[in-house]
Design brief:
The chain is built from 1 helix and 12 strands. It is mainly beta.
Length: 157
């Protein structure tokens, strides 16, 4: 997992897929339409969505095998809880058609991060994560974007 600001994205050398992703993220605003955006076909795409944050008991703990997620909010703030997949018990096995596995929640052994406009979190396949969590036990309506990058496209340069 990487947590940083959008303006620091140039400190990471993950190749052209990374650069395309942050060009796209920097083009969005809180007025961007909720929908799926094709950046590079099925290799890099984004989903802009709006919803109200929830407590962990109402969230899903998931991981992906084929894609790396880069997530940020465009309006409002949400918390993430992240876990290492090898420390969790699988609840729903990996489904390749959804590129997702789901895990039983445990309140221990996790990292919690708040994400707000101008910041991002990058989640690798070994990072199980719950997004959309309330900060300070108050639900908040947010607009966010999830960019999915096929993991093979992120190369260290």
């Amino acid at each position: 997992m990487i947590i940083d600001t959008l303006k620091n994205s140039n400190f990471y050398s993950f190749g052209s897929a990374w650069e395309q992703t942050f060009e796209f993220l920097n083009s969005l605003s809180s007025e961007s339409e909720d929908k799926k955006y094709a950046i590079e076909g099925d290799d890099i795409f984004a989903i802009v969505m709006s919803y109200t944050t929830t407590p962990p008991k109402d969230a899903m703990l998931e991981s992906h095998q084929n894609y790396v997620d880069i997530q940020t909010t465009l309006r409002g703030a949400e918390a993430f809880e992240c876990f290492f997949t090898d420390m969790l018990e699988v609840n729903v096995p990996y489904d390749a058609s959804k590129d997702a596995a789901f895990y039983k929640y445990t309140p221990h052994c996790h990292t919690r991060a708040n994400v707000f406009p101008g910041t991002f979190v990058m989640l690798y396949p070994h990072d199980a994560h719950m997004a959309g969590l309330m900060i300070d036990e108050q639900p908040e309506f947010i607009k966010k974007v999830v960019v999915k990058i096929r993991k093979e496209l992120l190369t260290l340069s």
